[in-house]
């Protein structure tokens, strides 16, 4: 569940042997109906799709091979329309000590086909012992991609500081949903985490594996948990980094994040106050926080002109939401430099964004990466229905302002699911699987908050927990926070298959 690129429930149907649930008005397919998909021959090929495909070029350079796996668009009709799911493989270096196949998901929801070389670099000695598989979930990347022609790369906005800002947010969310209503209806109706989990099982079968290991972060933890619930006994070593609480996954998933982001902002303010001579944001915590609130208020009066971009009170808090999610020195320096730019703009002075900020504003304020946000929200809205009354969202925003003055209007704002043209075809998955696994969570996580990781740990029988205490950071293993204690716990488990004897706490 992220704003920018790489960088994240009651009720369930009963699973059959094929991992299917009954869809109203449609016959449920048996496992036999999937035989032709399980038995298809996989053809490995170069990953580069054309001269401008930099991701493919890097994968080819790293020795990765790519393939397309055919799956049913609608698993209730396995004889009907099909789509292609794109995967990549970085093969284990030797057969003698090969552990097996590990499927990777980096959250978002976003692409994962590019991840195997990166993940191998994190895994130490264990990395070369797996065939590492990157898979773009359906609707994302190279897997039946959805692009609604959005004027933005993300659906996340603030409700602004007043009713005018909220009304703009409603219009923005409605427009995004309306654009998606013009896209292939049959495809859109079959985008969901449950179908992505079914796709994983087809990939597993095509690869000839009885079990696969799994390495998922953020949204990837939810996808992994759903797969474990739908297909019990088919996961081997499983890492779930920054767990999503299944009860909160859906259109309102950001509602749990307000307090964590406000605490992280206070931590940043203390850091910036000690560096006032460099950034000029304030010499005390209060002064820095007043600067933040003052810049937001200024953006509500008139959009801030930052280079080629106009940044208003819908956009600025969501950009701060993105910036505040890491307490690493380089990331805090980036946030401070960005706030300095916004402060200059608020004062009416020329404000030129530095390169990284310019890239982020391009992502948020142009359609260059429309596919990323379109695919993400198609999956989110396809999993669960959202509150459709704008006034209910407005009341939530108003109630949040006193406790969470900067991020409450982001966490509780309306989003495209309120206007989504399609109804989810299945109930969300109730997670109660027996899954010996390792769940990782940082106490200051601002995306999937620490309580979410604890909740997922409690739902998965046999799971153990590694806590990174004192860090404001999301996905500390996959995003390479660099904590030696945490990395050693994870890599020892992935290498040996032996979970820690008890839950472990690593200090920042």
From TrEMBL:
Coiled coil: none annotated. InterPro entries: AB_hydrolase_1, AB_hydrolase_fold, Pept_S33_TAP-like_C, Serine_prot/Carboxylest_S33. It comes from the Bacteria. One of its GO terms (molecular function) is hydrolase activity. Residues 1-22 form the signal peptide. Residues 405-506 form the Peptidase S33 tripeptidyl aminopeptidase-like C-terminal domain. Residues 101-255 form the AB hydrolase-1 domain. Keywords: Hydrolase, Signal. Pfam families: Abhydrolase_1 (PF00561), Abhydrolase_4 (PF08386). Belongs to the peptidase S33 family. This is Alpha/beta hydrolase. It comes from Actinomadura rudentiformis.
């Amino acid at each position: 569940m992220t704003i920018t690129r790489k960088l994240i429930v009651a009720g369930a149907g009963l699973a059959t042997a094929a991992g299917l649930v009954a869809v109203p008005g449609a016959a449920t397919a048996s496992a036999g109906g999937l035989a032709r998909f399980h038995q298809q021959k996989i053809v490995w090929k170069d990953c580069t799709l054309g001269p401008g495909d930099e991701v493919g070029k890097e994968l080819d350079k790293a020795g990765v091979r790519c393939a397309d796996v055919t799956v049913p668009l609608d698993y209730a009709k396995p004889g009907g329309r099909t789509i292609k799911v794109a995967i990549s493989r970085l093969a284990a270096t030797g057969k003698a000590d090969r552990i097996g196949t590990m499927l990777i998901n980096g959250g978002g929801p976003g692409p994962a086909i590019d991840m195997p070389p990166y993940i191998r670099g994190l895994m130490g000695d264990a990395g070369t012992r797996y065939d590492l598989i990157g898979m773009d979930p359906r609707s994302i990347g190279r897997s039946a991609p959805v692009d609604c022609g959005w004027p933005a790369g993300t659906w996340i906005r603030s409700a602004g500081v007043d009713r005018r800002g909220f009304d703009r947010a409603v219009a923005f969310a409605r427009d995004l949903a309306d654009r998606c209503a013009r896209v292939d209806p049959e495809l859109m109706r079959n985008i969901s985490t449950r179908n992505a989990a079914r796709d994983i099982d087809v990939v597993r079968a095509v690869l000839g594996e009885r079990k696969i290991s799994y390495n998922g972060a953020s949204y990837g933890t939810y996808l992994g948990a759903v797969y474990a619930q739908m297909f019990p006994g088919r996961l081997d070593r499983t890492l779930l980094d920054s767990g999503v609480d299944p009860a909160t996954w859906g259109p309102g998933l950001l509602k749990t994040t307000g307090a964590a982001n406000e605490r992280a902002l206070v931590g940043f303010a203390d850091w910036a106050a000690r560096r006032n001579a460099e950034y000029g944001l304030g010499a005390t915590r209060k002064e820095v926080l007043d600067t933040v609130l003052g810049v937001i208020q200024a953006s509500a009066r008139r959009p801030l002109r930052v280079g080629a971009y106009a940044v208003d009170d819908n956009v600025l808090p969501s950009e701060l939401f993105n910036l505040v999610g890491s307490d690493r020195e380089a990331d805090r320096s980036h946030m401070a430099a960005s706030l300095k730019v916004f402060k200059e703009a608020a004062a009416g002075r020329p404000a030129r964004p530095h390169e990284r900020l310019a890239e982020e504003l391009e992502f948020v304020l142009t359609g260059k990466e429309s596919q990323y946000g379109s695919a993400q929200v198609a999956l989110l809205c396809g999993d669960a229905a959202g509150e459709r009354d704008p006034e209910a969202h407005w009341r939530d925003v108003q109630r949040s302002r006193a406790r969470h003055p900067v991020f409450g209007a982001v966490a509780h704002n309306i989003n495209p699911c309120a206007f989504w043209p399609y109804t989810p075809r299945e109930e969300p998955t109730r997670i109660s699987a027996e899954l010996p696994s390792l769940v990782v969570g940082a106490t200051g996580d601002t995306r999937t908050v620490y309580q979410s990781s604890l909740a997922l740990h409690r739902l998965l029988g046999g799971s153990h927990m590694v806590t990174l205490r004192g860090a404001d950071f999301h996905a500390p293993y996959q995003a390479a926070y660099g904590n030696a204690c945490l990395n050693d716990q994870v890599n020892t488990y992935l290498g040996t298959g032996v979970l820690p004897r008890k839950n472990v706490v690593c200090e920042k």
